[in-house]
Amino acid sequence: MFSWQQSSWESFTASFENLHHAQIVTAPEGYGLREFSLAMAQYSLCGNIDSDGNTWCGKCQNCQLFAAGTHPDFHVICNDVESAQGRIAMISEYSYRYQDESVRGKTAQLKKVIPIDHIRTLIDNFVQRPHIAPRKVGLILPADRLNINAANALLKLLEEPPADSLLILLSSEPSRLPPTVLSRCVQIHLPRPGHEQARAWLKDQIDSEDIDLALELTDGAPIKAREVCRTELLQAQKEFLVGLAGVCRQAVSPYQLSSSLNKLDFEEVIKWLQGFILDVIRWKTVGRIPWWQASVEERLMPDRISGEKLFQVYDRLCTYRRIARGSLNQELALDAIILSIQRTVQ
Ligand SMILES: [Zn+2]
């Protein structure tokens, strides 16, 4: 359990006896949403909760099967992306009971939506009695990626929950969920750690000179910061943001920049662009110079940049993120948005 989740955990275990049958756990990406929800699942499956009631026993048959990835009463419903590139091996492993095995190890052409078939199979499993655990537990992630038919099918489980069952939905963007689903769940919103708490945790985890930059780029999200320190993503993001600052100073061609992005995930790039605009807004309003600006001699002039236009660009980026799942031509969209950032920030 992460230190910043301690109070959420205590309120979960304290209310466990009277727990509502459907919980939705929310937190932005990178703050330990999956880890917390897995802990909820393990706690709910353990048949022998410790006398202090604060943790599972780790010894009973339920705990052992759970840890081995073979518990028959634990059901994990994911989209292809989560299964194939899952950040947590146990979640991926359990999800393959519902998945087409062909997505295993794939990196391209993975579906982001959760189809109705998965939910139908979950319902078939949920109406049966638990095999060995005190209850059946279903984990659905990311719940905001349920397609509309899957969300409607899930309503049946939410409205008429089978006895001895617990559903845990995970979402980093709960506003994307249909209100009909959201209103039938009890929400646990996980807190963010303070900067020093996140920094101290990261220093324990990894040996990197880029810890502060990684936290800056991930908006203080410790798990995400650890991930970017370990992958080439940090380098790609650094190069991109320095390149974008260059585009704004007319030193780099916008098309050159957007063509370097083709291999990256569109939504990820949109998040970087949003971070860039927020950096400029902070610079303009509270005078905090962005790190990507400090290393160049020829600086942009934040006083001359229109605040209104910055917010317009930010709103457009929000729209792009919402429609990213549709048939949007991502290459053209990136060209257009980088051009409009250049026009705004120069
Ligand atoms: Zn146990």
Task: Explain this structure.
The protein is of the alpha/beta class and 346 residues long. The protein is built from 17 helices and five strands. The chain has helices at 6-14, 33-45, 61-68, 80-85, 89-95, 116-126, 148-159, 179-182, 195-205, 211-217, 222-230, 233-248, 254-259, 266-286, 291-294, 307-323, 330-344, and strands at residues 22-26, 74-78, 136-141, 165-171, 186-189. A five-stranded parallel beta sheet has the order 2-3-4-1-5, with helices on both faces. It binds zinc ion. The site of zinc ion has 8 residues, from α3.
Helix-strand blueprint:
Blueprint: H1 6-14, E1 22-26, H2 33-45, H3 61-68, E2 74-78, H4 80-85, H5 89-95, H6 116-126, E3 136-141, H7 148-159, E4 165-171, H8 179-182, E5 186-189, H9 195-205, H10 211-217, H11 222-230, H12 233-248, H13 254-259, H14 266-286, H15 291-294, H16 307-323, H17 330-344
Parallel strand pairs: 1-4, 1-5, 2-3, 3-4
The structure holds zinc ion.
Zinc ion (ZN) binds at residues 46-48, 56-57, 60, 62-63.
Ligands in the structure? Answer: zinc ion
Mean pLDDT equals 90
Write down the CATH class of the largest domain.
Alpha Beta
How would you classify the helix and strand content by structural class? alpha/beta
Q: Please report which band the strand proportion falls in: under 5%, 5-15%, 15-25%, 25-35%, 35-45% or over 45%.
A: 5-15%
Number of helices: 17
Give the CATH superfamily of the largest domain.
Answer: P-loop containing nucleotide triphosphate hydrolases
Tally of strands = 5
Largest sheet: 5 strands, parallel
Span from first to last CA? 45 Å
What percentage of residues falls in helices of 4 or more residues? 40-55%
Query: Any idea what the radius of gyration is?
Result: 22 Å
SSE pattern, N- to C-terminal: HEHHEHHHEHEHEHHHHHHHHH
CATH topology of the largest domain: Rossmann fold
Strands of the largest sheet, in order across it? 2-3-4-1-5
Shape: globular
